[in-house]
Amino acid sequence: MEKENTQGIGFFERYLTIWVAACIVIGVAIGQYLPVIPETLSRFEYAQVSIPVAILIWLMIYPMMLKIDFTSIVAATKKPRGLVVTCVTNWLIKPFTMYVIAAFFLKILFQNFIAPDLANEYLAGAVLLGAAPCTAMVFVWSHLTKGDPAYTLVQVAVNDLILLVAFTPIVAFLLGISDVIVPYDTLFLSVVLFIVIPLAGGYFSRKHIIKNKGLDYFENVFLRKFDNVTIVGLLLTLIIIFTFQGDVILSNPLHVLLIAIPLTIQTFFIFAIAYGWSRAWKLPHNIASPAAMIGASNFFELAVAVAITLFGLTSGAALATVVGVLVEVPVMLTLVRIANKTRHWFPETAKRA
Question: What average pLDDT does the segment 85-111 reach?
Answer without folding.
Answer: 94
